[in-house]
Model the fold of this input.
Amino acid sequence: MPGDRGEAVKVGGKLRGGGSVPPRVPCHGRARPGPCATVPCASPVSAPSAPGHCGGGAWGAVTQQVGQEILANLHTDREKIQRARERLRETDANLGKSSRILTGMLRRIIQNRILVFILGAIILLTIILAIYFNLRGH
Done:
């Protein structure tokens, strides 16, 4: 039943439950509420500005402006992506250099540890031999 779901119902020439109904104006063959110039027309055809039609020239200008803004945004986004890509390449090159430097440092650390153990063993052997020959001579 009309009016059960909160819809406006016309009773006695007056609208009950929703205010007044705006007049319906044809827009490219479709009835649209309110004046056509204030309601966007869903038709892809650009119609001339005439009574009963959407303002095709105004919508074309708006569409062109939106298109230009989108292209400008895409251009700036492309520049940002290119700068980020270049930064990424530089970072990758720097990481490669850092990796080679760290590998060289680790190799030197291992070489130094081996050298310290060898020198420690030689000094320990020298001390043991000195004590042995010193005690053997008595």
Remarks:
- The longest strand covers residues 24-27.
- Confidence is low (pLDDT under 50) at residues 3-7, 18-23, 34-53.
